[in-house]
Structures
1.
Amino acid sequence: MLNLVIFGPPGAGKGTQSDKLIAKYNLHHISTGDLFRKHIKEQTDLGKKVKEYTDNGILVPDEITIAMLKGVLDENKGVTGFIFDGFPRTVTQAEMLDKFMKEQGTAIHAVVALDVSEDEVRTRLAKRKEIENRSDDEEEKINKRIFEYYNKTMHVLPYYHGQGKLHKINGIGDVEAIFGNICSAIDSVK
Ligand code: AMP
């Protein structure tokens, strides 16, 4: 199995690079943001619970997020690998992910952190707003999401650094070149 985490601020290019990694390494994509948006669209109980948070760019509480993730892992036993996109976003989530992987007799093998400056992220998110029309891409909400990233999510990086799994990749430039650098990092641990 090959289990990856793709990490970075909102707008870093996690979705774009995930799509390419899925195709190359035959991975099952788990994006907690996509899962929440699906629940909200389908107006499930979970969707009703999390809408307030996601609409405002605030992290959904760990217990809700972790329970949802565990459910998805249980539904996908037997896949050749996972790519986690937008998860973990807190150290508690990272610890629980390690626990779940261990229970399945596997582990997180590499964490790819896309390095993109705050200015670049703001420019990209403003552009994405015009294209995707996501309800959390308004300026005030973008500010909240960026705040959440630098205040809570960044702390996950030292956690993985301590495990020797962190691969920082420059996320600015040509998509294919960035992908090549990511693949080199992954292939070095495979
Ligand atoms: P994303 O598409 O990954 O930017 O996620 C959109 C929104 O979903 C975030 O702003 C959070 O409100 C929520 N969300 C997604 N993943 C997580 C997570 N791992 N922990 C907490 N909240 C999350």
Note: The domain at 2-187 is CATH 3.40.50.300 (Rossmann fold).
2.
Amino acid sequence: MSISEGENVKGRYLITTPIYYVNDKPHIGHAYTTIAADVLSRFHRLKGEQTFFLTGTDEHGSKVAEAAEKAGISPQQLCDKNSQFFRNAWQELNISYDYFVRTTDQRHIQAVTVLLNKLFSAKDQKGEKVVYSGEYSGLYCVGCEKFITEKDLVDGLCPSHLKPPQSLTEKNYFFRLSSYLPLVQKLISEDKIRILPEEKKNETLGLFKQGLEDFSISREKVTWGVTLPFDPSQKAYVWVDALPNYISAIGYGDNPEEFKKWWSGGKVIHLIGKDILKFHNIYWPAMLLAAGEKTPDLLFVHGYFTVDGQKMGKSLGNVIDPHRLIEKYGSDATRYLLLTQFPFGQDGDIQEKRLENKYNSDLANDFGNLASRVLKLIKENFSGEIPEPEDYQKEEKELQAQAVDTVRKVFDYIEEISINQGIDEILKLVRLTNRYVDKTAPWNLAKAGDKSRLRTVLYTSAETIRVISLLFYPVIPQKASKLRETLGFKEKELIPSLEKEKDWGYLKPGTKIGEITALFPRLSEKEKKAVEISKEKKMENQISIEEFAKLDFRVAKVLEAERVEGAKKLLKLKVEFGEEKREIVAGIAEHYKPEDLSGKTIILLTNLKPARIRGIESNGMLLAASEGGNLVLLTTDKEINPGAKIS
Ligand code: MSP
């Protein structure tokens, strides 16, 4: 079955990415799914289909609260700051999302509350309550935000986070998953909930055979979360809060019409990594069924990649920040390179050298070069006007047929979320066109003065390049638009339309082409540019003596120090410098005991804007040096009176 078939309205899609945890900055793993979802959304838009592309950040739970505490700021401050990092990264990568959901948004919290109430009052087919209270005792990994069993541990540690789990016993509310398992299993087996690739469907079905237990939907000891409406002493389990982002963002609980339009009035496609398969393929459909809602139409589970053969992780120091790739390759090439390292759906490895080679071979040589040599020939021989073709010969007819066929093939692949096969087809057309140009050798035709044949060859080449710009647009939107601009398209036409452009002959002879610049300069030249840019950036970060003089650093003396209640890492210090006394909050409790601090000389930045940390107003910042996990306070070399200015 094609995903555009089925009983729902054709051509309306809700396309989602997972919402990413804000305890971390965006890395290329997050970028990978988000770029894929963007490419998919753009292809659907090209077909003229209504598309709602949703992404966002997952902001509740102990993982985020702990990261905030470590940073010495409130959880909300951490969420605001880090959520913005994701938006910035998506802007740089030209991600065309329609909505950015945050689980700390009131609208989302409200929707989760509505859903929780619905689940709480729901009864299963046997008339039993879907949500029941019980006691849970088990091992919990904060990194995974889930309970894990002894058999999951490796040497007593969570294998993903290399940390020992906590043991927890608490009152929890449970979701009666058992009541919905047979139906979810049936829906998956019959492809009513379609899971791609096929092996991930089988993996999901395997989980039913292993047995699945009811899961707890609340936490007693977590403070940073959505309060259960039926028991204010509990917070919603972070996954029970996160999964409903897919419906809160489209109006669940506050805009029934909008919600219906996107949830049941079209196809719902979730793109996820294989790490979160169980939550999405089993728990989420079960929750939806219990709440009386439709289940998702398609879950595409992609693989995980390693970096140079190793798992990407902070502890290994090999996390790749998308900014670094964008700086080196540019935004479009980063999108292209990340998607083309290995087939979407399988696991793979990312290697820097391979990225470079692929950039040079596919983008600089094959595609960029094709565009510039054809356009240059048009400039030189026809004063920059697209020539009128004359007699199409066998070679032209073949290339035309290939171009039209490639359009069909690419859209068919994308329909099945076979993104790599789609891109491969585009590149095949690029290579065929290069071969056609080599074979017909228009430079020789120009030399021989065969204008008639030259017109036909250059029109055919330029028109195939136009088809390539249509197909490449969702993958490399900026460069494809630039190429289209050079081909003479006006602003409105820079975003192509499949309906208008799927056939041969859309490019009008006589159109004036624009200025030709290299679309993807070869890496060595580009790298030089990147070095210049990073020098400029360094210069931008340099500050003048005048700017430095604005910072009012003083020698200060600690009068008292005490722990901040409920915060492992924070100390509240009363300090004195000159005539003035101040209170500051500092994240040094893991390195200094309060009793060791009184009387100590410290260096204080005094003219920092006050900040509220854990409800305490902090008026200044002390200086400390840190390396690895070690932290020491800066002090003076000899005795000097508090209040002395540092210059
Ligand atoms: N917050 C949850 C998801 C809730 S969705 C209702 C979460 N967040 S996460 O920040 O950990 O992001 C996980 C997702 O990031 C993966 O499912 C995948 O989409 C992406 N990836 C993270 N690392 C990756 C790789 N190394 N390789 C490929 N994708 C990766 O889980």
Note: Residues 351-527 form a domain with the Isoleucyl-tRNA Synthetase; Domain 1 fold (CATH 1.10.730.10).
3.
Amino acid sequence: MLKKIDHIGIAVRDLDAAVQKYSALFRKPADHLEEIAAQKVSVAMFRAGESSVELLQGTADDSPISRFVEKNGEGIHHICYAVADLNAALAAAEEAGMSPIPQENDRGAGGYRIAFLHPKTTGGVLIELVEK
Ligand code: CO
């Protein structure tokens, strides 16, 4: 059902600065850069084997990422699992007592369908599911 950890989302204040730092760490440029207007974020993906690190900066004060950084500072924001079938994964999550967060737009980076599970129902971890 869950195929692998697709990526770890990390909230940052300054995406350019973070990309510079991670480029030095990974010794390569970001594999993917994208602004997702509907989610009010800019993202940079760095592949690390089967998984990626997703750096996220909010693009508006009311962006969930901006609010997260305001409240908690920079750091790990979510863990994302790749799934074959998002609807089936959501059904399994609900069976496990985990609740999806209602969203107006279900397209994430790369145009893939995504959903988030509320951390209050998962043991304190914001979980993203991406259908790939
Ligand atoms: Co993500």
Note: Residues 7, 9, 54, 78, 80, 128 surround cobalt (II) ion (CB under 6 Å).
4.
Amino acid sequence: MTRRALGVCYYPEHWPEENWPDDARRMAETGLTWVRIGEFAWSRLEPVPERLEFDWLDRAIDVLGEAGLKVVLGTPTATPPRWMLDKHPDMLALDAEGRPRGFGSRRHYCFSHEGYMKECRRIVTLLAERYGRNPYVQAWQTDNEYGCHDTVLSYSKAAEKAFRDWCAQRYQSPEALNRAWGNVFWSMEYADFSQVGLPNLTVTEANPAHAMAFRRFSSDQVVRFNRVQVDVLRRHTDAPIIHNYMGRYLDFDHFDVGADLDIASWDSYPLGFLSDRLGATELHKLRYMRQGDPDNQAFHHDLYRAVGRGRWWVMEQQPGPVNWAPWNPAPLDGMVRLWAWEAFAHGAEAVCYFRWRQVPFAQEQMHAGLLRPDGAPAPALAEAVQVAEELEALPETDITTAPVALIFDYAAAWAWDIQPQGQDFNYFDLVFAMYRGLRKLGLSIDILPADACDLSAYKLVLVPGLATMPGDLLEQLERFDGVALVGPRSNAKTEEIEIPVPLPPNLAGLDAVVTGVESLSPGASVGLAAGGAFVRWFELMEGAADVVEVTADGRPAMLRVGGLHYLPGWPDESALARILQRLCDRAGVATENMPEGVRVRDTSVHRFVFNYGSGPARYGEKDLPAAGVHWYAR
Ligand code: GAL
């Protein structure tokens, strides 16, 4: 059984040193186990180049450790100090318009800048040498939120140079690159890799293959940047190395970064995300404004469990209003507790609140903490105490394989971002709609990467919008004896964004071909005979496979051979509910219709029930208050 724990993010450099012991004591009294520090402290560790001031950090680690806390030490590379820019004036990322992303906040670096990379290697080496064997430092965090504030794609000279090298590695010759990208079109052919530019500032859209190569390259640069730090740390410590990812952020392949790390973590801001990035209707936003979307947190928990190969944390948990969303309401009483328990039910080893005390200065002064700026308890503190007490009587929360698997792939998100064909064909929205549909049927779900996944333990597998299906996945589906749903728009492109011939979906055994596609503008739809409609996207199909759903005018709307189904459209909510129900019935997966706002999650022993509603709800025989959490042996 894995021990679950709470923690908090703390910035000793923000507070007078005489307050540290009291802070540490209160953290321990609250029942917190972990404290993450250091990730933005470079200007205090090295105020001028090569003048190192680590003594204060030594003392901070001692104070926290002596109070019984375990330290997660962050590398400070997300916030290069001002002198770094004097030393490396070309280290900034450039946006797609060629404008520098300047100093004065954070993440002002280009992942491809070799000089900055060296500085990072140096500071991480110094930290690792000094604290790698420190008994209080029991985990490390690399950098902070790679990609935050849209910082993965950079159009700098450094990026251009690195991209040319990357292309030379991948394609070996300009002729091969020209062939792969189809550069004969519009006379875009190159005679030399030195002629290859970045896909910005073109007159009209760049070649999608060029754009896709740049997305793959940019993701690889993040992997490489992270790996440099990991390689240094591994030489000096055996403690687990973690990175804190974000919600709904897809600009690099998290599975690739995660492969070099021991634990995945993510930063969960349920109210901020509902307000600023889920594309929810105003009604939905109002209904859940103090609770967060009922499926968003769970989705990311399941995603990052996969990224961490089973080991994952919430590194930052919203404790009250944040400062960065368009509107920043306070959580309903009980939600700070609910969010933590939901994470544990999905297998989190730790949930750390962001942050200990609200800071009265600078950008995040309006962001709540567990304490107010004056040090008095903020509302979240009591809920953290409650969770800590409940963890003492910890129910067994070990995870178990879910009945349903959902495939998630970053490259598919890039492909449809580059070539949506209909403005609202958004990969994340499609996958998330399916995830939500499954949760509304009371299901627990495992999210799996497209490559290197094993389907054999599942009864039902969904593969929505997977632009390019890896050969291994295709072979597994061929052998799979459960029920699978592929599509829409799966196996629709080669890796180089070409339409494959034979035409999609080209699934072994399924005699069906996509002969044409159309995107549907808002309000337009293709009705289905059994109810509901396709929206956003519809594919015309031909072939001899069994047709198990038809459009209102009799065209194929779902095809099947054995347990393998192909879905040629984007189902609206009611069509999706019916289709998922039908697939679950066929797969022998038991379902139940969840009351509005109620969700469940099964562990190996328990069923956890969460009420995201703002009022009471009933689940089975149980009345749940708003923000209620309930668990029982299943
Ligand atoms: C995260 C970030 C933290 C802090 C927090 C505020 O994205 O990692 O440093 O800025 O948001 O909500």
Note: The chain has a mean pLDDT of 97.
